[in-house]
Design brief:
Blueprint: E1 3-4, H1 6-13, H2 17-25, E2 40-41, E3 45-46, E4 49-50, H3 54-63, H4 68-75, H5 86-91, H6 95-105
Antiparallel strand pairs: 1-2, 3-4
C-alpha cells in the first residue's frame, strides 16, 4: 500500500498541512493506525481530492463503534462479494453498496 505524509497529501489537495491534520482530526480522512497521523493511504485520494464518499463512510464506521484499527482493516479487507476491498469499491463509485455494508456491520 502506497502512503503519503500529511505534507504530500496537502500538495495533492492544494491545501496546507494544517488543513490535512484537521481532516484527520475530524475523521474526514484517516491515517494508517499506529503511524501517528504521519502516513495516509494514497488510495484515499483521487483526482486531486479526498475520495468522494470516504468521509461519510468513516462517519458510519466510527458511529457504528469501530476503532481506528477496525475501520482501517475493514476498508482494506478483500471481499469476494464486492469484489475487491471497500476502498476499491469507493474508487470505482460503488459507494452505495459499501455504505450499506458498513451500516449493517455496526455494533
Amino acid at each position: 500500500m502506497d502512503t503519503l505524509t500529511p505534507a504530500e497529501v496537502a500538495d495533492v489537495l492544494g491545501v496546507s498541512p494544517n488543513r490535512v491534520r484537521q481532516l484527520l482530526r475530524e475523521h474526514k480522512l484517516m491515517a494508517v493506525p499506529g503511524s501517528g497521523n504521519s502516513r495516509i493511504p494514497a488510495d484515499f485520494l483521487q483526482d486531486g481530492a479526498v475520495l468522494r464518499h470516504l468521509p461519510g463512510l468513516l462517519t458510519v464506521l466510527f458511529d457504528g463503534g469501530y476503532s481506528d484499527q477496525e475501520a482501517f482493516d475493514w476498508l482494506f479487507r478483500d471481499d469476494d462479494t464486492l469484489p475487491g476491498t471497500p476502498v476499491q469499491a469507493l474508487r470505482d463509485d460503488r459507494h452505495t453498496e459499501v455504505t450499506r455494508r458498513a451500516q449493517a456491520l455496526a455494533f
